[in-house]
Amino acid sequence: MCELLGMSANTPTDICFSFSGLMQRGGKTGPHSDGWGIAFYEGAGLREFRDPYPSYNSEIAKLVRNYPIKSDIVISHIRQANAGRVCLENTHPFTRELWGRNWTFAHNGQLKGIKKYPLNHYLPVGTTDSEYAFCWMMGKIRERFPKPPARPVTVQRFIYDLAEEMQGLGVFNLLLTDSKYLYCYCSTKLSWITRKAPFDQAVLKDDSVTVDFKEVTTDKDIVSVIATDPLTTNEDWHVMQPGEYIVFRKGEVDFRQEA
Amino acid sequence: MCELLGMSANTPTDICFSFSGLMQRGGKTGPHSDGWGIAFYEGAGLREFRDPYPSYNSEIAKLVRNYPIKSDIVISHIRQANAGRVCLENTHPFTRELWGRNWTFAHNGQLKGIKKYPLNHYLPVGTTDSEYAFCWMMGKIRERFPKPPARPVTVQRFIYDLAEEMQGLGVFNLLLTDSKYLYCYCSTKLSWITRKAPFDQAVLKDDSVTVDFKEVTTDKDIVSVIATDPLTTNEDWHVMQPGEYIVFRKGEVDFRQEA
To answer: Count of CB contacts below 8 A, A vs B?
Structure first.
């Protein structure tokens, strides 16, 4: 299984601490050595780093861990390949433009028969099930909403329906964003935590690192982190149920659909 | 004026040497301090680095200069903003997907009245003239060729016509790629060089660096580099004429349209 990591914040926040834990799972404390990628949003702008090599000794991953890129939304993925060979075009996250927004997608799981689904506007560059599913979802969203609808909840519900359909094909743990919302669907495994004042210390599970959030935040900061497995040992993470769906906006739960 | 840098090679090649010269122009030997970006192709796969800060002291640019990423095609841009504020979404190069290929675009110049052109499939995320022009071109290509035509020269000619139309709006020095071809249109300023055996030394103009290509190449390597201004002092660069158009494939000129 691949590892997912997402972040949504109400103020530009760096992900160094959480990423530092995640990247250890890329070939060191975990078996996910078939590449990794991360997408950072600064407003509408998108910055991506991607490597078809293990994350724990990647030069680029080192940069990402040490250089505090402040962003509003982050999606990261480390890969254990099951469908599609190990190469750059098969490395998550994937991105496409719709409504003049950068959409980013990362997934873990397998989807049986996905390649029989018809595609229209968006075509995959690589050969993974995941990118194919992303193109299908984006095509569906575009077909149904040529323009963003007045009420964001309409899209939120529609994406839930698409995720449920994908879930019917196998395993579909999903992180998706349009630069404003972070859409998370739990098929088998996904946990999250919201951090806000009063901030406290956190201790990473995969790396001997402790951070004191009091020192790096203000009282107004609200940050949610979503990961395949809890990344810290001393905090209470919410473990999502299979079929549960949460949309984050500016660090907080904006929409929730129970399983 | 912004600075452009492109590379097309018949074997995965790193751009460290040329990039090292270019990045000095980002706020040190040149005035282009409003961000920079670079796109690397490994086959169909795309890797991008982008920063809305000056390149000469950027952490990410340092990584790109020191870490030899081998690629088939590279497009890089350092920016001196004239239209659109300085932020990540206004930082070249821009990318979109068509035909299941990643297309990348970088431009220097201004285009008067471009925003009156109608867009269909692709919408800009930022506010630059350049990204708008890219979206317009991509929409035109998609409309005319829903699928890639049998003869690549058909697309090559079509892109020339689009570039000529853009050129009518002002200044349009262009680097564009679909992961297979590198399309270069000279509006005012663009030079290129093809390096092949027997390889020799090259001396950078903007940085006190010399490279001996004999030591880092094989006899079969063919690499073309395209830049706003020649990057080396001891080689014969071809200076393109305004209105001239060249398409490179695997390091060599594949199509050429004189001014």
So the answer is: 84
